[in-house]
From TrEMBL:
Keyword ATP-binding: yes
Entry protein name: Branched-chain amino acid ABC transporter ATP-binding protein
Alphabetized UniProt keyword annotations: Amino-acid transport, ATP-binding, Nucleotide-binding, Transport
GO biological process: L-amino acid transport
GO terms for MF: ATP binding; ATP hydrolysis activity; branched-chain amino acid transmembrane transporter activity
SUPFAM superfamilies: P-loop containing nucleoside triphosphate hydrolases (SSF52540)
UniProt family annotation: Belongs to the ABC transporter superfamily.
Taxonomy, superkingdom: Bacteria
Amino acid sequence: DAVDVLLSVDGLSAGYGEMPVLNGVSLEIRRAEIVALVGSNGAGKTTLLRALSRVLACTGTISFMGHNLVPLTPDQVFGAGLVQVPEGRQLFDRMTVEDNLLMGAYRRADKAAITGDLERMYALFPRLGERKRQLAGSMSGGEQQMCAMARGLMAKPQLLMIDEMSLGLAPVVVEQLMEVLARIRDEGVTVLLVEQDIHLALSGADRGYVMETGSIVHGGEAKALIDDPAVRKAYLGL
Ligand code: ATP
């Protein structure tokens, strides 16, 4: 159903200097779904996120809620509701958890709603509520990932793109984070989950795309991808 398409990418190419990395990537993300973008190390996943966020030059089409993102600046893209949670969290280490969350809302003027949204984040991530006065840099890896995700949500995104959410985290923590993603999806936030851990990402997603050397090589319902013999053989070691 075309009205449900939130992001539509067509023929997107990008690279670094003379080196091409993305070769005509096309994909579609619909409202209130979790989409996994998976592929091995160096496939170009982070490069695709950088092109979508408009920090990297690209050719092709990026249509987000009917608007062309290609001519926009990164700040304008953020303002349009396409928000990235970067690989490695990139928190403000010397600021408190709460001040990090407030940084996510820096473009918003609705003070009362911001205060309400802080409380929503503490309900979603109780650990952050317990530690809101703690410096972000002194938190555990899992807590820092929660803080980075909550900071992104404080921007009130239409689409939250999360790069390597699970990296370096214990399985029990990753499981909690996946549950949070399902909750925010059910509340209407669309999620693009970029992961090297293909099984993990497809297990928690509605749909998925598999990327290899700068191109999408498989796409579809996440369950169908996990069951696809070609995907199982090439990526899941089965
Ligand atoms: P990973 O999960 O390891 O980050 P990835 O799928 O996200 O992998 P990218 O980080 O997008 O892959 O990298 C794709 C290719 O682009 C790699 O060959 C990488 O070496 C190259 N690359 C990434 N960043 C730069 C850069 N700043 N300058 C030059 N080449 C780069």
